[in-house]
Design brief:
Elements: E1 6-9, E2 17-23, H1 31-34, E3 45-49, E4 53-54, E5 60-61, E6 65-66, E7 74-75, H2 77-97, E8 100-110, H3 112-123, E9 130-134, E10 156-162, H4 170-173, H5 176-182, E11 186-192, H6 200-211
Parallel strand pairs: 2-3, 2-8, 8-9, 9-10, 10-11
Antiparallel strand pairs: 1-3, 4-5, 6-7
Helix pairs in contact: 2-3
Length: 214
Amino acid sequence: MPSLHHIIRESSLKENAPLLIMLHGYGSDENDLYSFSQELPEELFVISLRAPYILQPFGYAWYSINFEAEKGKWSDNDQAIQSRDLIANFIDEAVLKYPVNKHNITLLGFSQGTILSYAVALTYPEKVKNIIALSGYVNKDIISGDYRKRDYSHLDFYCSHGSVDQVIPVEWARQTPSFLNQLNIKHCYAEFPVGHGVAPQNFYEFKNWLKSRI
């Protein structure tokens, strides 16, 4: 499997740093969420990944989304599963390559990156600890089939959504807390009066949430 292109911000710690991996949304790239990194705790080792599929005229995607009118909007779940496994493999690579703590890994996703963050955490729970899930939802079709048998007791999720999101309906995100409850996963869920984006108060809330967990 090819390794994912990425950019890093080194930690103030020389070893055993908490690792934050960023997964951008459809049509964006690794620089998008990376802009948050200057405001995040300096002890975090930050890696922002670029999704593998190139879009025209610009940007990248974790998987294709088809917008044909007669089919409605649908996602390529096979590509999504491949990207899920690429990310899981990248976590293993990063732990070997960088001075990070493999027991303190956070995924930060936006939109399509959030959908993948859920899939990685619920399929490979042993690889991650915290999930910040912004403006996304759980796609059960890209999670390992035996996920209900897994041990998720160490996981912690911060989930948020814009209440007027025009890209991913807020109703989809509102199903997440009950789904996580069924799996006995610690989580909090918040909504903000914005569209498909991250409000300033949303940023400060997840930043404080993360601070208390690293």
